[in-house]
Design goal:
Distance between the termini: 14 Å
Strand content: over 45%
Shape: globular
Strand order of the largest sheet: 1-4-5-6-3-2
Order of helices and strands: EEEEEE
Number of helices: 0
Radius of gyration: 12 Å
CATH architecture: Roll
Oligomer: single chain
Largest sheet: 6 strands, mixed
Mean pLDDT: 86
């Protein structure tokens, strides 16, 4: 539970496989992230994702929409909005 709401907070490494930023809109306020990892199956719209870069920097975004095309089965696309603490 985050902020009294039934959402979860997860971490995602932006390493080019588990996740990478495909599109940046509105000066970084909105992004689209894609990648390949089985963990995305438990993520839901409204959940918060702490995006982690290799340099140790972390930024929190909220999932607006998550799409799972199914081929390959572990691929996902997430539209996200900046969600600072």
């Amino acid at each position: 539970m985050v902020d009294g709401k039934k959402t979860n907070e997860h971490e995602l490494s932006l390493n080019g496989v588990s996740g990478f930023v495909m599109f940046v809109r509105n000066k970084g306020q909105e992004i689209t992230v894609s990648g390949w990892c089985d963990r995305h199956r438990k993520w839901r719209n409204g959940d918060r994702i702490m995006l982690c870069r290799e340099a140790g920097e972390k930024t929190r975004y909220r999932i607006i929409n998550i799409r799972r095309p199914g081929n390959p089965p572990d691929q996902y696309f997430m539209d996200m909005a900046f969600d600072p603490r």
